[in-house]
Amino acid sequence: MTSERTFIAIKPDGVQRGLIGEIIGRFERKGFKLVGIKQLIPTRELAENHYKVHRGRPFFAGLVDLITSGPVVAMVWEGDCIISSARKIIGATKPLEAEPGTIRGDLAINISRNVIHGSDAVETAEFEINLWFKASELNI
Question: Which of 26, 50, 104, 117 is catalytic?
Answer without folding.
Answer: 117
